[in-house]
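Chapter summary example.
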Amino acid sequence: MREMDTIQVPRHVLDIPLDAEGTLVCRPNRFLAIVDIATPFGPKCEKVHIHDPGRLTDILYPGNRLLLRKASGKNRKTEWDIIAGKAGNDFVLTHSGYHRQISMWVLDNNIIERLANIEKILPEQVLGESRLDYLLESAGHRTWIEVKGCTFAENGMAMFPDAPTIRGRRHVEELIKAVQAGDRAMMIILVFRQEAQCFTAHEKIDPDFAAAFKRALEEEVQVHPLLFAFVKNDTFGAIYYLRELPLCK
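The structure predicted for these 249 residues follows.
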């Protein structure tokens, strides 16, 4: 972790087992990569699953260093998952399958003060035409929460999304409707770029999402960008919570 992050003591969140390192050869499609696995199984090229809907263009490019985990499953077409990729001096978590565990840690550890008195956590609840990540109940209030993972940063700004997302925009619109109906609503942004100093919607990539995000702020949907670090150890990668980021001005 960077020296500047030691001002606030990092808090351990999660350990993710790692089985190999490799370099990206190519990316035939959105969810498939060909990786030259270097240690300890290589060198050999393998098909590897990409568990993230984004473009990840500044992480998944030929020659970049990746961290992998061996996978198993009856219906899988690949035997490996990409867990993280190198971006500058840091590794960035690129496996969105861990977002649920990380966000549950956030809720369980009272990272967001306004959620400190939760009485009930209901995952995967339907709101309108969407399924949102959480519905929280406390003291007679309902809070709808959608979690997004952010893996892109530029000039110190973490930005979401890194690919157009109709589904993501719809989630934001449902949060707006929840507030208008008298409930509370919140977006939790899991930011995995340690160099980020603030968070904003990525207007160039998805102007419709950015417009919905702006409306959400105006309607008092709460937004909490939380900064995390991925630290590689010998056989696992450790996720640490660093701090909450402000919104970019």
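To summarize the output: The domain at 97-244 is CATH 3.40.1350.60 (Trna Endonuclease; Chain: A, domain 1).
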